Amino acid sequence: FRVIDVRLLFIVMMAMTGGISMGLLAASLSSIGLLYVYITSGNNWITLFYDPLNWVPFVVYLVTGAMVGRLRAEALLEKSSLKKQIMGRRDSYGRLYSWVERLNQATPEAVLKVAQELLVELVDPMALVFYQVTGANQLAAVPGLSQTLTTPLLDGALGQLAEPLMSGELWLNRQLDPNLPHYVAGLRYRS
């Protein structure tokens, strides 16, 4: 430990965690500690300031605290700028991550509401409707989650949609039947 200046290490660590103000505070405290060591070792404080070579450690402490703190501030600014760039791209993993964060809701109904908002953002459909299966394989639109449609897409019995809905598979309207939706996917949860 003869070669390592513990005070300088303290200044660097504080400036890296707290920025310029914390770095300068740590440099001031280290300077006071160094001044105390000089005085208790028998040196006169007047001769300490008379010889400019004795100023070097104090100047190094202050410059180090300010520079490392400034580097930290620039790094945080760069990080936030990059995060905005990544989140702004339509096809980025950052955007996917923000969607997953938004989907982290407490109730299944809240998850469905956020999923609807995200799907509208993503594909911008004319209508996005969530249905729930009620007794005897009947469909009913989920209130509050489905946009109002003039004519409901699905009413009554599930019919050919029963199997894909119950198995959780994605169903595609390959016959392009205008009375059926383009896609149907079943979501399940246990209450």
Q: H/E element string?
A: HHHHHHEEEHEE
Number of helices: 7
- The spatial strand order of the largest sheet comes to 1-2-3
Global structural class: mainly alpha
Average pLDDT, rounded to a whole number, is: 78
Major sheet size, sense and barrel closure = 3 strands, antiparallel
Helix content: 55-70%
The share of residues in extended strands comes to 5-15%
What is the distance, rounded to the nearest whole angstrom, between the alpha carbons of the first and last residues? Answer: 62 Å
Radius of gyration: 33 Å
Oligomeric state of this protein = single chain
Principal-axis shape: rod-shaped
Low-confidence blocks of residues: 148-153
SSE layout:
Blueprint: H1 6-18, H2 20-40, H3 45-50, H4 56-88, H5 93-103, H6 108-123, E1 131-134, E2 138-141, E3 156-157, H7 162-167, E4 170-172, E5 183-185
Helix pairs in contact: 1-2, 1-4, 2-4, 4-5
Q: Can you walk me through this structure?
A:
The structure is a single chain. With 191 residues, this protein is mainly alpha-helical. Helix content is 55%, strand content 8%. It is built from seven helices and five strands. The protein has a three-stranded antiparallel β-sheet, with no helix packed on it. Strands 4-5 form a two-stranded antiparallel sheet. Strand 1 and strand 2 form a beta hairpin. It is rod-shaped. 9% of the residues are buried.
How would you summarize this macromolecular structure in one to three sentences?
The protein contains 7 helices and 5 strands. With 191 residues, it is mainly alpha-helical.
Which key phrases capture this entry?
191 residues, mainly alpha, two-stranded antiparallel ribbon
